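Exam revision sheet. Question 4 asks you to relate a sequence to its structure. Input first:
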Amino acid sequence: MAGFRGLPADLIAPADPERGRDAKGWIGQRMGNYDSRVDQPALTSRFDITLAATRSRSFRKFCSDFRLLLDA
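Answer key, structure tokens:
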């Protein structure tokens, strides 16, 4: 997401995404004028599911549970 929608080009993701809270606040501090109604769809379009799964245990759990629901 670095350099996208006003985020700094040198943006560094949190070392442990599982520990953080207030993701909107975190991104708003770095983006400046964050408006979820406008910015969220654009940011979501750049979301890397594979990267999220490698960095987040809770996201992997969500994906696993979602697959179970689809298979049911």
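Marking note for examiners. The CA atoms of residues 53 and 63 lie 8 Å apart.
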